[in-house]
Write a structure and sequence with these properties.
By secondary structure, the protein is an alpha+beta fold. It has 2 domains: 3-85, no CATH class; 90-155, no CATH class. It is 51% helix and 18% strand. The protein is built from 7 helices and 3 strands, in the order ααβββααααα. It has helices at 3-24, 31-34, 77-84, 88-100, 108-116, 122-131, 139-155, and strands at residues 38-51, 57-66, 72-76. It has a 3-stranded antiparallel beta sheet with strand order 1-2-3, covered by helices on one side. α5 (108-116) runs antiparallel to α6 (122-131). The longest helix has 22 residues, at 3-24. The radius of gyration is 18 Å and the shape is elongated.
């Protein structure tokens, strides 16, 4: 078997394994219905490799939660993007952009994610949405934007779960 054939076969197997594992953790018993039960709970980057449900090693980690039964699962960003259609990829892209240049803006998906988790408050959310596409900010507004960026960046790390 050629390397290309092996890669395609392993990719297919990992897709099957992801679907199979998600279905096991879901109330629905078929893939189209099961994947609709899941929502993005948390995203974070890890310094150490973790493992996706599909078996691939991951650093961009998404914790997903089943809306129906409360189950959670750890899935890689690429699997979330390809198969579950949740907003993890725009969040990771925004974080990378702001880490490279903290004067850049995060996107709306990242703001919503941060607001829903109380990383930022409603005033900060509204302020940021108002200024995010403006090229020139006053010194005070720029300072507030940088503080909000820092709040968000500091939370995209391994979360602490309280039992």
């Amino acid at each position: 078997m050629s390397w290309g054939e092996l890669f395609r076969e392993n990719t297919h197997l990992s897709e099957y394994k992801l679907a199979s594992e998600i279905i096991k953790l879901s109330t629905a018993r078929n893939w189209p219905a099961a994947k609709l039960e899941w929502k993005l709970e948390e995203v974070y980057e890890s310094d150490e490799l973790d493992a996706c449900l599909c078996g691939h090693p991951i650093r961009e980690i998404c914790v997903i939660r089943n809306r129906v039964n409360g189950s959670t699962a750890v899935v890689g960003n690429s699997c979330v993007k390809k198969f579950l259609d949740l907003a993890s990829d725009p969040i990771f892209r925004a974080v990378k952009r702001v880490r490279t240049d903290n004067t850049k803006s995060v996107n709306v998906e990242t703001l919503v994610h941060a607001l829903e988790r109380n990383w930022i408050n409603q005033w900060e959310f509204d302020f940021y949405k108002d200024i995010m596409y403006k090229r020139i900010l006053t010194e005070k507004r720029q300072a507030i934007k940088l503080q909000i960026n820092q709040k968000i960046l500091s939370r995209i790390g391994r979360p602490v779960f309280v039992a």
